[in-house]
Every structure is written in structure tokens, then in C-alpha cells.
From TrEMBL:
This is Endonuclease/exonuclease/phosphatase family protein. The chain crosses the membrane at residues 7-26, 38-58, 65-86. Residues 113-319 form the Endonuclease/exonuclease/phosphatase domain. InterPro entries: Endo/exonu/phosph_ase_sf (IPR036691), Endo/exonuclease/phosphatase (IPR005135). Pfam families: Exo_endo_phos. It comes from the Bacteria. Keywords: Endonuclease, Exonuclease, Hydrolase, Membrane, Nuclease, Transmembrane, Transmembrane helix. It comes from Gelidibacter salicanalis. One of its GO terms (molecular function) is exonuclease activity. The keyword Transmembrane helix applies.
Length: 351
């Protein structure tokens, strides 16, 4: 038994060291490399356990033990360079809102991937009643979910519904007027995203992009990312660079991000992650506490400050809802530039 456990321990150590090192190729077109980008928290923890185990149990050190230690330490360093961005060891990218003035505009957003096969709507409705957000973004909405969520219409008179049955339906509810909404299909005709212009009153307008790109892997009967190079967010980035208003990007990005927004969207110093310097707020997987990482994100331009960020309780989905309160600082100038088209892949959706 001791021999078997030793072999298992070595196999785990070799695998976690190898996977951590290979994860530096996360942006290659090999989807399995990209998948190594997600469990960095788990790789980091297991690497520490393996290093401690090696020092405790190995009595006679050999060359392969030293090589394994070097591999584990290398993986530990690689993963820490990503994870450190979500600790208090680095400065926040989006400043905390302090001494909010009456001229500043505050509002809240609740985003939730409801999981299309989940048929428990009551937990989400109760959370909405509790938090009373100004905007609600629901993803993976099919016809059943769209019907059940219509109870929100009295409190949320403005909405956009684009429904499908391949887990990429999306609904946006708003207390504020949606002056303009375009339904875009960035890389896949089954995967909608919304480009909204919203009037917050008192002369303040924001751009609100809600997205749910396909994951970097293949699932039978679902929209697939093969050959698309995960470029949906880069296409979105071109639009954001030409923004006319303070802008928000929110949704299940199917990517852990790890604060590398510029790289992900092809922009530079335009979008900022509200999580940086504050914590992971892991939104997936709500059904397995051992396999969790941040998939649902709120990215904002420089005009915003963060008042509150919360991961909300389970609602029966494999994602936790995320709640955020933002403030537009009134003394910052609006962005300049004109809106750009999303390329020839842009189409108007059917509601």
C-alpha cells in the first residue's frame, strides 16, 4: 500500500508540475492548452502540498527528486503570477467609491448564468427582490426561463430578449431606458451579445455590452469554438476602443481572465477588472467546490468606481450570480471617438 501511495503521489506531482508549466501556452490554438488556464488555484494549492510532501517523505534524495521540485516550484511561480492579481498584494484597478456626491450616478447590476436545464426560478427571483438591482443580465435563457422571468416586467419596464435553445439565450432587464440595443453575433450565429446605450438620467449615458462567448472546447450539439481562435472579445475590443460613453462589459466570458484584459480584448488601458486587488469571487462551478474559478466578469472603463462587489448564494445553476454596485464619477470627461462596426459578422438578431 505504501508503494502504491508513493507512486500515486509522484504521478500527481509530475502531472501538476507539467500542466502548470504547459499553461504558459494558454493562448495557443490547441484547446487543451487553454483548458490548463482555468484551474490555476487548484494547481497552486496542489503544488504546495506536493512540495511539502516531498520534503516530509523523501529520506534519500535522487536526481529525479530535485528535477521534480524544480518543476513544482516553476509551476508555483507561473500560477502565482496570474493569481496574485486577485489578492491584496496588488493595487485595485477600479478604485473604491468614497464620498459619493449627489452629482455622481450610482447603479447596480446582477448577472446570472441560470443554466438552461435548471428549473428552479424562485431562488433567483428572491435574490432579485433582495438586492433590487437596476440591471439584470440572465444568460442561458430558453423559452421556459424567458416566460418565468416575465414577472420582472412591472419593476423593469425596459428589456431585451434574444432566446435560443442551445444555451446561449440572453435577457437584459433595466429600470433605465434602453435608448438603443443592437444584437450582435460576433463569431457564431447561435451566440448573441447585446450592445446597449442606456440613459441613466441627469445627462448621463453609458454603453453596456453583455456577452457570453463560447468556451474554448467542444461540446456535442453546442456552438463550438473550433477554428475561431476565441476572437469574439477582440472584435468587441475594437468597438470599445471607439466608445462614445463610459462603458461596461459584463457576462459569462467562459474565460478566467486573470486580469489580462488587454490581451483578451486586444485593447490597451481601456477596460479594467473590478476583481483585481479584491479577490477571486469564483462564480463557477457552484456544484463542485473543488473546481472553482472566476468565469463571470464585470469590466469597466476609467470613469467608474466600485461601491460593492458580491458573489451571491446558489440558485440551482452551476454558476453563482454576481452583484456589483458602480458609480460614475461626474468630474471625469467622457471618452471620445466614434462607434465602430463589429465587422462583417455583425447581424441584427431576431427576438
Amino acid at each position: 500500500m505504501k508503494k502504491v501511495l508513493t507512486i500515486v503521489f509522484y504521478v500527481i506531482s509530475v502531472c501538476v508540475a507539467l500542466f502548470s508549466i504547459l499553461s504558459i501556452f494558454r493562448n495557443s490554438e490547441i484547446r487543451y492548452m487553454k483548458m490548463l488556464d482555468f484551474p490555476r488555484i487548484q494547481f497552486f494549492i496542489i503544488s504546495i502540498i506536493c512540495i511539502i510532501g516531498l520534503f516530509i517523505f523523501i529520506k534519500k534524495w535522487k536526481l529525479y527528486n530535485y528535477i521534480l521540485i524544480i518543476g513544482l516550484l516553476s509551476g508555483l511561480f507561473i500560477n502565482s503570477t496570474f493569481l496574485i492579481n486577485y489578492t491584496s498584494l496588488v493595487a485595485v484597478e477600479v478604485s473604491t467609491a468614497k464620498d459619493v456626491k449627489t452629482s455622481d450616478q450610482a447603479f447596480s447590476i446582477l448577472l446570472s448564468n441560470v443554466k438552461m436545464t435548471n428549473r428552479k426560478v424562485t431562488p433567483l427571483i428572491k435574490l432579485i427582490e433582495l438586492k433590487n438591482p437596476d440591471f439584470i443580465l440572465a444568460m442561458e435563457v430558453d423559452t421556459w426561463w424567458d416566460t418565468e422571468l416575465k414577472v420582472l416586467e412591472n419593476d423593469y419596464p425596459y428589456s431585451q430578449h434574444t432566446i435560443n435553445d442551445v444555451t446561449y439565450g440572453m435577457v437584459l432587464y433595466s429600470k433605465f431606458p434602453l435608448e438603443k440595443v443592437e444584437v450582435n453575433y460576433l463569431t457564431n450565429q447561435n451566440v448573441p451579445s447585446f450592445e446597449s446605450t442606456i440613459n441613466l438620467g441627469e445627462g448621463k449615458t453609458i454603453g453596456f455590452h453583455t456577452v457570453h462567448p463560447v468556451p474554448p472546447t467542444h461540446f456535442k450539439n453546442l456552438p463550438d469554438n473550433a477554428g475561431q481562435q476565441e476572437n469574439a472579445l477582440k472584435k468587441l475590443g475594437k468597438v470599445i476602443e471607439g466608445r462614445k460613453f463610459p462603458t461596461i462589459v459584463a457576462g459569462d466570458l467562459n474565460d478566467a481572465v486573470w486580469s489580462y484584459i488587454d490581451e483578451l480584448t486586444g485593447t490597451k488601458n481601456v477596460l479594467y477588472d473590478v476583481r483585481v486587488g479584491r479577490g477571486f469571487f469564483n462564480s463557477f462551478n457552484a456544484e463542485n467546490f473543488l473546481m472553482r474559478w472566476p468565469l463571470d466578469h464585470i469590466l469597466v472603463t476609467e470613469e467608474f468606481r466600485l461601491k460593492k462587489l458580491e458573489r451571491l448564494p446558489k440558485i440551482g445553476s452551476d454558476h453563482f450570480p454576481i452583484y456589483v454596485e458602480l458609480v460614475i464619477i461626474s468630474n471625469l470627461p467622457e471618452a471620445t471617438g466614434g462607434a465602430q462596426e463589429i465587422s462583417n459578422n455583425k447581424m441584427i438578431g431576431q427576438d
